[in-house]
Specification:
Blueprint: H1 3-14, H2 28-31, E1 39-44, E2 49-53, E3 59-60, H3 65-77, H4 98-102, H5 113-127, H6 131-143, E4 149-150, H7 152-161, H8 163-174, H9 182-193, E5 195-197, H10 199-206, H11 225-238, H12 244-250, E6 255-257, E7 262-267, E8 271-276, H13 287-300
Antiparallel strand pairs: 1-2, 1-8, 3-5, 4-5, 6-7, 7-8
The structure holds glutamine (GLN).
Organism: Poseidonibacter parvus
Protein name: Glutaminase
Family: Belongs to the glutaminase family.
Length: about 300
């Protein structure tokens, strides 16, 4: 299959959607980003890559970081992690408080904000002040790129305006589901969200999930096969918050989005894909990114269904 031709076609076909959507402006540092960007990278298990658009341009990975922290927490705690965070879709927005109260401070899954804050808290229990370095090092290792870092401006902006996230962590603390200092946990969470990467780096970093937990380029085992399966399942059912059903319906691949405008998707046994376009749909997922992935699975037949 000629993937380069296919993604070139997709770049042409998505142009009409640039009128729609809106960049995330609840994080002021993200509000002034050029909305008319598009990039898409594919990485095959044998290391071949295909790129279209400005694939060198770095952006804030935001909630895509939740895949990495969940991987680390699952590695560390195994099944006992699920005493503190579930594995069911929430059907609510990523920053919603409402279900947390009904469900006694136990977030539905690790890919909504509350769930990711809990997984970060579990990492702090083990790595304390080294937690962020540990997360960053894992991301660098999975991408095989040691230049990756976080954006201090985005980090401070989130810290200053993260009122809902503060509400989430406080509510969970009241239900005894946060064990470490609230400030430290939330700072680590915001730092991981403000990590910046381009589509090529993100596609590289997710390749292990298309290959049963092993990065096929470096041969590093990042997680075991059984757990890689769980991570993919949760990406399929929960990776797009209250639009996870819609993403599965239209794209049919495990995927994870972030409000920075990135989406990663996995074609098991074949490739990882990353798309970037910063204007978001109502549920906070890249509008053009979702469209591009839908076109991709339609044109290639590479959905898991
Ligand atoms: N959906 C997202 O990407 C949200 C992440 C963002 N840092 C927040 O906490 O609100």
């Amino acid at each position: 299959m000629n993937y380069q031709n296919i993604i070139n076609e997709i770049e042409d076909e998505i142009q009409v959607y640039f009128k729609e959507g809106k960049v995330a402006d609840y994080i002021p540092a993200l509000a002034h980003i050029n909305p008319n960007q598009f990039a898409m990278s594919i990485k095959l298990l044998d290391g071949t890559s295909f790129n279209v658009g400005n694939t060198q341009n770095k952006f804030s990975i935001q909630s895509i970081s939740k895949v990495f922290t969940f991987t680390l927490a699952l590695q560390l705690y195994g099944r006992s992690l699920y005493k503190r965070v579930g594995h069911e879709p929430s059907g609510d927005p990523f920053n919603s408080l409402i279900q947390l109260e009904y469900e006694n401070g136990i977030p539905r899954n690790p890919f909504i904000n509350a769930g990711a804050i809990v997984t970060t808290d579990t990492l702090l229990s083990k790595y304390q002040d080294k937690s962020f370095d540990y997360i960053l090092d894992f991301i660098r290792t999975s991408a095989n790129d040691f230049t990756i870092n976080y954006d201090k401006e985005v980090y401070s902006s989130e810290l200053e305006h993260g009122f809902l996230n503060m509400a989430l962590i406080n509510m969970m603390k009241s239900y005894k589901n946060i064990n470490n200092d609230l400030e430290k946990v939330i700072q680590t969470y915001f730092k991981q969200c403000s990590i910046e990467m381009n589509t090529e780096q993100l596609a590289n970093s997710m390749l292990f999930l298309a290959n049963h937990g092993v990065n096929p380029i470096t041969n590093k085992v990042l997680i075991n096969e059984a757990k890689a399966k769980r991570i993919n399942s949760l990406m399929l059912t929960c990776g797009h918050y209250d639009a996870s059903g819609d993403f599965a319906y239209k794209v049919g691949l495990p995927g994870k989005s972030g409000v920075g405008g990135g989406i990663v998707a996995i074609v098991p046994g074949k490739m990882s894909i990353c798309v970037y376009s910063p204007k978001l749909n109502k549920q906070g997922n890249s509008l053009i990114g979702t469209k591009a992935l839908e076109l991709f699975t339609t044109k290639t037949g590479l959905s898991i269904f």
